[in-house]
Amino acid sequence: MSNTFYNEIITEHNIRPYNKREIKDPDITLEGVNPSCGDDIIVNLKLDENGNISDGAFQGDGCAISQASADMMMDLIIGRSSEDALRLADIFLRMIQGEASEEEIEELEEAGVLRDISHMPSRVKCAVLGWHTVQEMLKDF
Amino acid sequence: MKATYNRDDDKKIRQDFPILTDDVAYLDNAATTQKPIQVLDSMADYYSTSNSNPLRGLYKLSVDATCAYEDSRKAVAGFINAQDASSVIFTRNASESLNLIAYSYGMNFLSEGDEILISIMEHHSNLLPWQQVAARAGAVLKYVEPNEDFIITPELLKQNITDRTKIVAITHVSNVLGVENDIRSFAKIAHDAGALLAVDGAQSVPHIPVDVQDLDCDFLSFSGHKMYAPMGIGVLYGKTELLDKMPPFLYGGEMIESVTRYDAKYAPLPHKFEAGTVNAGGAVGLHAAIDYIKGVGFDLIRAREDHLTELAFELLSQIPGIKILGNKDPLMHHGIITFTVDGVHPHDVATVMDTDNICVRAGHHCAQPLMKYLGVFSTTRASMAFYNTEEEVRKLADALSVIRRKMGYE
């Protein structure tokens, strides 16, 4: 069995995504679509009075890369401020371009496993779908 | 002697294709085929010895280029048994051919309330142009659906034709299901109802003998690049009486007889439909590809592709979680095997296959309405050419047999 890009971290987040669930009364909702894959996710966020992300989840269908990426993103940004979430999204998107430093990638925790996507141009859109969606949601909030 | 798959032929056949190696299994032939050295050499030779702008210059080199280009037209006409070489129009690909029919015939000869009948198994290239014709002409776009065996029977077609049906546009072989439509019967049904039959031959012409007079279709579209020729050269065959009355699709150089300030008289067929400098190098490549196919012979092409499809069916059907779409009989598939893997998204299937150096297609295959009809979001497709081998099919099956495990399932 040859090695694939799909390590245990990715397959686990894909098969058992902890953050793929419903949220009651989300403060912000946005749908992200990747027409090339047919990936389609809806991201829901709840913010507290200080603008911190008190809860977040996603729903929808897609490939393992988009699902795992969205799940790991949620693990990372729940409990953070909007500014911090935007900063991490920026690091993630730069990592995919191969432009993030090792220190920055470390901040992404598990999501750092997707760094090799930078060598798979056909799958970049899958990996960034959730992150782009959150970026859109928070940038004007 | 009946042609059969013989392992001893593999090496000899594959030697003709410089890109093919033992390391990579290329199983995306319905998307585009690889090119034999005979085709590549023919184009290098054309550009090395005969290149100039065809149909224009009066010097010898231009005459050579014109001859090469028009010889290819004759070869295409012979290949599909068209009565007259002037009924063969060179285009970029099947999509452009289908657009030519839609724009030149559809937009000008259809009017409000007329009906266009297509099938649910059309590639977007034989669907979107008709959506446009319907929208602009006020015509109605209707779909015929197959039976439970994924076959559009002549009865089903008949049930969907009315006296308002002006054109039936249908694929010869589906790029997803691989099923062949009974074009000869469909032509008769369409003609009896006063409608024309336009056939998308992109997936049939490379794999089975196609005789336009025998089928009695009014139009046939196909691409060179799916039949061992280069990209950028395609064909529209049309009955001359129809092409004659249709207005040009594109306007420009070399498609006129005379031009005044406010008017123009157009060239006769086929040049009326070939505005601008033509793809002579591509046409030369297509000519060489036709000669190549004839040299190999459809008997051997079919025998090998059918054998590999049967083997793939046998091996894939033993793998838990894999479901092949379409008819149960592999011989109804023309080398096209579209499947799903339980719990694994097709894009992940294709990515994992790529790690094992197996090229398969994943996605909606430019047939989103068909995907919806089949109740799947997207699928993975392996498609055979005669140069594929048993080893490659086994490699595909081996890779698929562990894919669910690789993706974290027990």
Polypeptide structure, described:
The complex is a heterodimer of chains A (141) and B (410). Chain A is an alpha+beta fold. Chain A has a single domain (8-139), classed as Sufe protein. Chain: A. Helix content of chain A is 42%, strand content 18%. Chain A contains five helices and three strands; from the N terminus they run αβββαααα. Chain A has a three-stranded antiparallel β-sheet with strand order 1-2-3, with helices on one face. In chain A, β2 (39-47) and β3 (53-61) form a beta hairpin. Chain A is globular, with a radius of gyration of 14 Å. The mean pLDDT of chain A is 92. Chain B has two domains: 7-31 and 297-406, Aspartate Aminotransferase, domain 1, CATH 3.90.1150.10; 40-294, Aspartate Aminotransferase, domain 2 (3-Layer(aba) Sandwich), CATH 3.40.640.10. Chain B contains 15 helices and 15 strands. Chain B has helices at 7-15, 37-49, 60-79, 94-109, 128-137, 154-160, 183-192, 212-215, 240-245, 280-296, 298-316, 346-355, 368-374, 390-401, 403-406; strands at 25-26, 88-91, 115-119, 140-144, 165-171, 196-200, 219-223, 234-238, 256-259, 264-266, 322-324, 336-341, 358-359, 361-363, 379-383. The longest helix of chain B has 20 residues, at 60-79. Chain B is globular and about 75 Å long. Classes of the chains: A alpha+beta (141), B alpha/beta (410). The A-B interface holds A 1-6, 8, 11-12, 14-15, 36-38, 61-65, 120, 122-123, 126 and B 343-348, 351-352, 355-356, 363-364, 377-378, 402, 405-409.
